[in-house]
From TrEMBL:
Domain of life: Bacteria
Signal sequence, start to end: none
InterPro entries: Flavoprotein-like_sf, RNR_NrdI
Species for this entry: Paenibacillus peoriae
Organism classification: Bacteria, Bacillati, Bacillota, Bacilli, Bacillales
Record-linked Pfam families: Flavodoxin_NdrI
The protein, known as: Protein involved in ribonucleotide reduction
Length: 116
């Protein structure tokens, strides 16, 4: 499964590197023509980053699931971008991980992506 991601602080980038899956970083105008899982970060007070919103609007057809990084210090807003995207596009919320994730997060995501 293709992983499509964006990273603001580098945490998502570090996590994607640990997954060892085919991946592509979001760039302006990117069009994806194969099934993919999105990995995003959460910005502001539990919001979807604008660049991610635009990308998903233009690529929702092949979007199969969403994952988000976050910081548990935000409480209920932890990784909330994934909650919002999952709800708006009726796709599975695969997982949320803190900062750049850990080995258990990698194992969970690998297992869940196999079942998509």
């Amino acid at each position: 499964m293709l992983i499509v991601y964006d990273s603001l602080t580098g945490n998502v980038q570090r996590f994607v590197d640990k997954l060892h899956m085919k991946n592509i970083k979001i760039a302006d105008g990117l069009v994806v023509d194969e099934p993919f899982v999105l990995i995003t970060y959460t910005t502001g007070f539990g919001e979807v980053p604008k660049r991610i919103e635009e990308f998903v609007r233009n690529n929702e057809y092949f979007l199969k699931g969403v994952i988000s990084s976050g910081n548990r210090n935000w409480g209920l807003k932890f990784g909330r971008a994934a909650d919002i995207i999952s709800h708006e596009y009726c796709i599975p919320l695969i997982h949320k991980f803190e900062l750049s994730g850990n080995q258990l997060d990698i194992e969970i995501i690998n297992e869940r992506i196999k079942n998509i």
